[in-house]
Amino acid sequence: MPKNLRSDLKTAAEARSRAMARLLSASIFLSVSVAVGTTAYFQIGHGRWTLFDCLYMTVITLSTVGFGETLEGMAAVPEARMVTMILIVVGSGTLLYFLSNFTALIVEGDLQGILRQRRMQRHIEALEDHIIVCGAGSTGEHVVAELVDADVPFVVIDIDEERVQTLADDYKAEILYIIGDATDDHSLEGAGIAKARGVISCLHTDKDNLFVTISARDLTSNRPGKAPLRIVTKAVDSSSMRKMERAGASAIVSPNQIGGLRLVSEMIRPRAIEFLDRLLRADRRLRIEDVTIPEGSNLDGRTLADAAIRQTGALVIAVRQTDGTFVYNPGGSLQLQAGASLIVIAHTEDLQRLRDGLANGTLLVARGVSMAPSSSGSQSAPPAGGGAHKKK
Fold this sequence. Notes:
Elements: H1 3-44, H2 51-62, H3 78-126, E1 131-134, H4 140-150, E2 154-158, H5 161-170, E3 176-179, H6 185-190, E4 198-201, H7 206-219, E5 230-234, H8 241-247, E6 251-253, H9 255-268, H10 270-282, E7 286-292, E8 315-320, E9 326-328, E10 341-347, H11 348-360, E11 389-391
Parallel strand pairs: 1-2, 1-4, 2-3, 4-5, 5-6
Antiparallel strand pairs: 7-10, 8-9, 8-10, 9-11
């Protein structure tokens, strides 16, 4: 999240808080003035005026309406006019103070909200290769949490602004968002779908997720120079998965299916699940990621042993070849290809180092040159030579 947007949001909250504090103090002063004026009239009248009449006289005096002396026989009580003069001088100032702060709260709140939304929209328009999250409900909140941890730019579309702000507070992050219906083309366009790299649709119903899939694919059908939009959608009912695939979804995730697999895995392979949980949850910076070897890379045609990948701190556990096959536990003799994806375990900073190295062409090891290990503590070692296993 850009620092100036964080500062803007913080400033808006502080301004609103100050306005609320001033309004509270003005309300107290006004209430005291009304109470003192009403009591004073009642006491000096010795019961000749009712409390309501005294209250009415106090209110019209404070508001400077000027209906005259509405209390019957007031001229016979000199002290009453003294109370009236005091209320006019002191009380009307208090009322003016209250009204000015009340107006400021409304105007400043609306103005700050408008400015915040405009600034947020500018930041959304400046995004590129970001992810759009449709829905911030029970599934979407976990999507948002992972994107925040992975430091991936994203925009949330949801109809409930309070829910998005609650997520921002829970995860101590500022979230870019669009308030609207994710199935509406205007909401997707406002979130910058033309420049996004992917959409995650995690709305409550399969019908809504299907609409998002169709709209997203249609809106990005013509994007010269950009890779096809990747659409990942949730399917509550397994019978909807085929429809979503035909609609253009790149991947369909069934929470029920994943939940069932997790349940049985906890039963029959608890130690493996415990390992993965500790690996990915105990250390929130550790990730299993895929990194693609770009076209024109100096690693194209070279072996894994020629690449200084281990020196970045990343551990290659598999390679997805360009033909779609996977090589698990790849040996040092495996030949790398542009377009192939490296499946690695690494900390977030090591992942960035790996991506930078691939982009800059600095991962090719010169023969006889030993590179220092990364700062994350990974030890320099040649790639493991265990037998490579291929799977389609």
